[in-house]
Amino acid sequence: xxxxxxxxxxxxxxxxxxxxxxxxxxxxxxxxxxxxxxxxxxxxxxxxxxxxxxxxxxxxxxxxxxxxxxxxxxxxxxxxxxxxxxxxxxxxxxxxxxxxxxxxxxxxxxxxxxxxxxxxxxxxxxxxxxxxxxxxxxxxxxxxxxxxxxxxxxxxxxxxxxxxxxxxxxxxxxxxxxxx
Length: 180
Fold this sequence. Notes:
Pfam families: FMN_red. Its EC number is 1.-.-.-. It is built from 7 helices and 9 strands; from the N terminus they run E-H-E-H-H-E-E-E-H-E-H-E-H-E-E-H. The chain is an alpha/beta fold. The chain has one domain: Flavodoxin domain (Rossmann fold), CATH 3.40.50.360.
């Protein structure tokens, strides 16, 4: 079966979005899954001057190569001030400078979480809108509210049965899409 690349759009080493996306990814069988952290691909803030004078950073190419090797992606986006973090936006900006269609032919499952009732829904909505501009096909998404109340960090599992059933259903739909 295909390879699935998994990451969160957060720069935090204790990212709840990383915890969520890794937990979901660990439920996948019959596919090769690679979980990465974007913070391992250190990048300067995008600037035309940096691109012109120094070229595209090697880490952009390294990340793009990982994307190229994947059949599909699972991404969990965090939210800062009702949009995606500047960190994740910067990653997108650099990738799009290397290749405007850096997600061409990639099926994507998007998710988001936060400690509040909306589960970073604004960041999720923005990401659902922007990724197709770079070639992605967003085939499924879900927002996970009240992370601290609905997730056990020690056991790395979803504690709310309804949310877990929603994850199972969404993940199943996503896997069916990439297998067809």
